[in-house]
Amino acid sequence: MVETPHILSITELTRKIKGVLTKEVGQVWVEGEISNIKQYSSGHTYFVLKDQSAQLSAVLFANARAALANTAFLKDGQRVRAGGGISVFEGRGQYQLVVHKMESAGVGALMERYEALKKKLNAEGLFDKSHKKPLPLLPQRIGVVTSPTGAVIHDMLNVLNRRFSNIQVLLTPVKVQGVGAAASIARALGWLNENCGAESERPVDIIIVGRGGGSLEDLWAFNEEIVARAVFTSVIPVISAVGHEVDFALSDFVADLRAPTPSAAAELVIRPKQEFEKLIKQRRDDIHRLLFQQHRLLAQRLVQLSESAVLRRPEQMIERYSQRVDYLDMRLQSAARHEAGRARQRAEQIFGRMQLLRERRFSDLRARLEGARQSLNSSVAVLIEKKKNRVETSERQLVLLNPLKVIERGYSLTRIEGGGLVRSVGDVTPGLSLVTQLSDGFIRSEVEKS
Amino acid sequence: MSEKKMSFEESLNRLDKIVQEMESGEMELDAMISAFEEGQRLVKSCSAKLNEVEKKIEKVVKSAAGEIITEPFENTKSTKE
After folding, report:
1. Is A210 exposed, middle or buried (0-12, 13-18, 19+ CB in 10 A)?
2. Phi, psi at residue A25, to the nearest 5°?
3. Fewer CB within 10 Å, N or C, chain B?
4. How far B7 CA sits from the closest chain A CA (Å)?
5. Among residues A298, A426, A269, A108, which one has the least CA distance to residue B33?
6. What does the DSSP assignment read for A169-217?
7. Most confident among A279-288, A350-359, A379-388, A390-399 (mean pLDDT)
8. Is the CB of B19 less than 8 angstroms away from the CB of A286?
């Protein structure tokens, strides 16, 4: 007899298969491409993961989806890595992967490119602090480079409007992901620098470039070299605001300031108007207060001065000084007198001594003079005596030799009348008149014969 | 530097400086009065600068003729794609 096989119900078989799969395969990680992804109103997401030759149904329940850091890769065509448990959906007779964790599979290669480019740009100095420009305190016009649709621009505008009611914003719409995004962003930055520079009619004085959160692939445009260089060469200061707080795009490193999110950028770009108003009012109050204080201080001083004795009875001041002057004068005088007395004493002393000295010398001299005179006198007397003697002697001799005395003895002198003495007979000729001198007169005679 | 040409930031800095100088207590009354007057002018011009620009949110677009112009941008929240 042929054994009848044990006949299972479909449910029983399915349950058995489920048990085997759950036990034997259990928790796995797979990598594949998403296709046919669909999210239902329940919040659960159904899709298929496939590779070249096989496919796997997968479900991402709502709570697991909510737990994902980001969900940007949940699109058809995205390569992903998914972790979860293999199970069977009995209703459909379908085995499936119930996904707990998911991430983009392209991450590895992209991260390498990111690191390489980061290193290159850093080495070139694009990240240097020295290139970072200061942001204007009160921007007149804010340039925004981001997608014109989506929450980002609206959130930013809301924040800006709240902070400053009369703000001016110029949006240059760009693609923030996908093909051509990087070029679009770079072009927008260039356009703003060219057309809204400092010399333009309505210049933009600060640019915010950014986008909302996403996967590394989504943010990739902001890691492209062309965008980094456009940010670097921008003359207008740039704030880079890419993704969420934890995301660091290369544009963040190059920019003059990084904001953790686009809304944060809107806060960093301008202070609330009230803050400025408060600051100005504070200064206004300061200068009022300071001037008032100074004025009051000076007024007080003026009152003090006017009330002081000096100004009320100025003579008092003079009197006081006058008395001092007198006192000093008196002291000066007595001192002078005292000094004068002493001086005079000294002078007199000196004078006396001088006098004494002089007299002593005087008497000395006088004595000498006297002595000299006496000796002179005696010498003269002697001399005179001598001379007198000689004179007397001579006189006596003379007397003796006086021809007239000779004449008294009987001799006579005969002279030719009108001529000289007759000394020899030859001196006369007969007839010549002669005068003979005797002691008591003359005799005139004539020569008779010689 | 003519006060008209000073930027907001420069005006504010100058105002700070004036307050500092007045606080230093080394100013003669005459100097204080003219500093006060300058300060008043700066307060006025800074306040004016805050309200100088009128609100304008614009967007850069390519016109029908192909040139790049700006037009007003409406800040209405669009539905997410």
Report:
1. buried
2. -100, -55
3. C
4. 9
5. A298
6. EEEEE---SSTTHHHHHHHHHHHHHHHSSTTSSS---EEEEEE----TT
7. A279-288
8. yes
ipTM above 0.90, yes or no: no
What are chain A's domains?
10-107 (2.40.50.140), 114-274 (3.40.50.10550), 407-446 (no CATH)
Residue A400 region, left (φ>0) first, then alpha (ψ -120 to 50), else beta? alpha
Minimum CA–CA partner of B36 in chain A: A287
* Pair A439, A409: CB distance under 8 Å: no
- The pLDDT tens digits of the residues spanning A129-157 come to 999 999 999 999 999 999 999 899 999 99
DSSP structure class, residue A245: T
Residues A104, A73: contact at Cβ < 8 Å? yes
- Record: contact B53-A150, CB cut-off 8 A: no
Rounded to two decimals, the pTM is 0.55
Contact assessment for residue A143 and residue A172, using Cβ atoms and an 8 Å cutoff: yes
Shortest distance between the Cα of B17 and any Cα of chain A, in A, equals: 10
Best of A133, A135, A138 to mutate (most B CBs within 10 Å, chain B): A138
How far is it, in rounded angstroms, from Cα A258 to Cα A409?
175
For the segment A217-235, what is each residue's pLDDT rounded down to a tens digit?
889 999 999 999 999 999 9
